[in-house]
Amino acid sequence: MPKKPASDYRVKIMTRLPLELRNFLRDQAASNGSSMNSELIRAVRERMEKITAQPTQP
């Protein structure tokens, strides 16, 4: 049986958000027709890509 790519694995986490961030996340999910989980994943991925794309300082 072939192994799944690392990107196929999911872990469950619990987090606490300030109310205004939770409301923003809810509103973005509603606007985009997606779940709050999907919006949170998108935001973290965007941040990760931004950070990893930056050139390192010599």
UniProtKB/TrEMBL annotation:
Keywords: DNA-binding. It holds the Pfam family Arc. Residues 15-50 form the Arc-like DNA binding domain. Gene3D superfamilies: Met repressor-like. One of its GO terms (molecular function) is DNA binding. It comes from the Bacteria. Signal peptide: none annotated. GO terms for biological process: regulation of DNA-templated transcription. SUPFAM superfamilies: Ribbon-helix-helix (SSF47598). Transmembrane segments: none annotated. InterPro entries: Arc_DNA-bd_dom, Arc_rbn_hlx_hlx, Ribbon_hlx_hlx. This is Arc family DNA-binding protein.
